[in-house]
Design goal:
By secondary structure, the chain is mainly α. It has four helices and no strands. The protein has helices at about 1-90, 95-100, 105-150, 160-185. The radius of gyration is 47 Å and the shape is elongated. The termini are far apart. About 0% of the residues are buried. The mean pLDDT is about 75.
């Protein structure tokens, strides 16, 4: 019987120790599994952050492209509106049929002549300035040749004459190119 009791206690102790080893082995296994899962979660978090950064960069690029496109559209609309207003101003007339028709008989002639002159001056301003500056540029070229040829003038040296003429020519050329560019640059393209 003592052997039975010892066998019982031995079996109980050995079962407990075996169970304890099983618990410890399970806990150690759980520890390594949790450690491996944590490493996987960290790696996935890094990947998620990289994806989020790529998406944020993509969204910023899309926003920048959208802003650039919107700015270009707004600039194009503004240019078109300005050019349209310029064309309307070119077409504007002060002398209209309704104005003459509703004016007293004695005043219709005065109104016709006066507003006709206003329309003519307004319509000829841009081409007149263009023509004037082109003629002035040509005349300045010939005047420059004369001044350089008269280098014996005591008021200034030929070098001074050349400097003065260069300054004047630069100013006139600038004004001429602005005027000519404005005149021809604001004309509508022919629709063919």
């Amino acid at each position: 019987m003592l052997t039975s009791i010892m066998s019982f206690f031995g079996s109980a102790a050995f079962g407990g120790i075996t169970g304890l080893f099983g618990v410890i082995a399970g806990k150690v296994g759980d520890y390594f599994t949790l450690k491996q899962k944590n490493a996987f979660d960290l790696a996935m978090r890094d990947k998620d952050m990289a994806i989020a950064q790529i998406e944020a960069t993509k969204e910023v690029t899309i926003a920048q492209d959208t802003n650039n496109a919107n700015r270009e559209i707004a600039e194009s609309a503004m240019i078109a509106q300005t050019q349209s207003a310029s064309y309307e101003a070119d077409r504007a007339e002060y002398l209209t049929h309704d104005l003459i028709e509703h004016a007293p008989t004695w005043a219709s002639g005065i109104i016709s002549v006066g507003l006709g002159i206003v329309d003519f001056v307004r319509g000829m301003t841009r081409p007149g300035i263009t023509l004037y500056l082109c003629v002035l540029t040509t005349m300045m070229y010939y005047q420059m040749e004369k001044i350089v040829a008269m280098s014996s003038t005591p008021a200034f040296t030929p070098a001074d004459a050349v400097k003065i003429i260069i300054l004047i020519v630069d100013a006139v050329i600038y004004l001429t190119t602005v005027c000519v560019t404005w005149w021809f640059g604001s004309r509508p393209k022919s629709k063919k």
